[in-house]
Specification:
GO terms for molecular function: magnesium ion binding. With about 300 residues, the protein is an alpha/beta fold. The chain contains twelve helices and twelve strands. The strands form two sheets. The protein has a seven-stranded mixed β-sheet, sandwiched between helices. Strand 1, helix 2 and strand 2 form a beta-alpha-beta unit.
Length: about 300
C-alpha cells in the first residue's frame, strides 16, 4: 500500500494537469516526487529550497494572484517555523491556501525534536477560519486533499502521517462517522488513531466516533452520540493531548459531562527510539488506551491526566 505522502504527490501532480488554477509550492521535502510536474508546469510548480518563510509568502502571493496553492513540507517547518507568515501572509491578508504536512508528531524519531510537531493543530487553533483534516488512510488523504483544493479560497490544513489504518472509511470532509455504538461513553478517534482505539475498546460498551475533519469540530455528532451513550467523552488525538478538549466542552456546555483528552504529552522524549516506542511512551498504544479508557468510563480519572 502506498503512504499518504505517496498519494499526496500523485494526486497533486494530477490536479496540476487537470486544473490550471492549482499550484504547488515545496521546500525541498518531497521534491523528488514532482520531477514531471516541474517539467510540465514550471510556472505553477515551485521549489523554494529550505526557506520556509518564503514558502508560505510565495504561496500567499500566488493566492492573491488567483491561484490555489498547495504548500508542503514537514509539519514543524510548515506550521511552527513560518507561523508569522501563516498568521499574516495568509490569515491577515485573507489569502487561501492548502497546507499539507508530513512528519506528523514523531514520524521520523531519528530526526530529533526539530522534526516533531505535536503542537501543530493547537497552534493553528489560535487563528481564525482554518479547516483541519487529519486522514487515517491514503484513500482518505486523497479524498480530503481533493476537498481542500476544491474549497474555493479557504485556508485548509491537511495533516499526513506514516501511521495508517488498515482500511479507508467513506469520509466527506465534514462529519464524524459512527464506527461502533455503545451505552457507557463516547470515544472520539482522530485519523490514524482509529485502529488502536478499535482494538482498545473491543468488548467495551462504548460508542466510537471517527474524526478526520477536526476543525470545524462536529459538535452535532458528539451531541447525538452522548444522547444515547452518556456524557463521558474520551478524545484520542495523534497530536498534543487536549487539543480538542475545549471544542468538546463547548459542544456539551448545556449538559453535565466529563472529557478526557488523550494524545501526545508535553514532556520531550530525548531518545530517538522507534515510532512505536514513542506511541507507547505517550500512552497511545492499544494496551495503554484500553487501561485509560476503562478507568475513565468507570468513573475514575487515569493517572497522569
Amino acid at each position: 500500500m502506498d503512504t499518504m505522502r505517496d498519494r499526496f504527490a500523485s494526486v497533486v501532480t494530477r490536479l496540476l494537469d487537470e486544473d490550471p488554477r492549482v499550484a504547488v509550492v515545496l521546500a525541498e521535502v518531497t521534491a523528488d516526487r514532482f520531477t514531471e510536474a516541474f517539467r510540465r508546469h514550471p510556472d505553477r510548480a515551485v521549489n523554494v529550497g529550505i526557506r520556509e518563510q518564503l514558502l508560505v509568502g510565495a504561496a500567499s502571493g500566488m493566492a492573491l494572484a488567483g491561484l490555489r496553492p498547495v504548500v508542503h513540507t514537514f509539519a514543524s517547518f510548515l506550521v511552527e517555523r513560518p507561523f508569522e507568515q501563516v498568521k499574516l501572509d495568509l490569515g491577515h491578508q485573507d489569502a487561501g491556501a492548502v497546507l499539507v504536512s508530513a512528519g506528523a508528531s514523531f514520524d521520523w524519531p531519528t530526526g530529533g525534536h526539530t522534526h516533531m510537531a505535536p503542537g501543530d493543530v493547537a497552534l493553528l487553533d489560535t487563528l481564525d477560519g482554518w479547516t483541519v483534516h487529519v486522514p487515517g488512510h491514503p484513500d482518505e488523504a486523497e479524498t480530503l486533499l481533493r476537498h481542500a483544493v476544491a474549497a474555493g479560497d479557504d485556508k485548509v490544513y491537511v495533516r499526513l502521517s506514516l501511521q495508517s489504518s488498515a482500511e479507508g472509511r467513506p469520509v466527506d470532509g465534514q462529519r464524524f462517522l459512527t464506527v461502533r455504538e455503545g451505552r457507557s461513553g463516547v470515544v472520539v478517534a482522530v485519523g490514524p488513531m482509529l485502529d488502536a482505539v478499535l482494538a482498545a475498546t473491543e468488548g467495551l460498551d462504548v460508542t466510537v466516533l471517527y474524526a478526520t475533519t477536526v476543525r470545524p469540530f462536529d459538535a452535532d455528532a458528539l451531541r447525538r452520540a452522548t444522547a444515547t451513550a452518556g456524557t463521558d467523552v474520551v478524545l484520542v488525538e495523534p497530536y498534543l493531548a487536549g487539543t480538542s478538549t475545549a471544542a468538546a466542552n463547548d459542544a456539551l456546555a448545556d449538559v453535565p459531562h466529563r472529557v478526557l483528552g488523550l494524545g501526545v504529552g508535553r514532556a520531550e522524549l530525548r531518545r530517538y527510539g522507534q515510532f512505536e516506542e514513542h506511541l507507547a511512551a505517550h500512552g497511545l498504544d492499544a494496551r495503554s488506551l484500553r487501561e485509560r479508557i476503562t478507568l475513565f468510563t468507570a468513573g475514575a480519572v487515569p493517572a497522569g491526566v
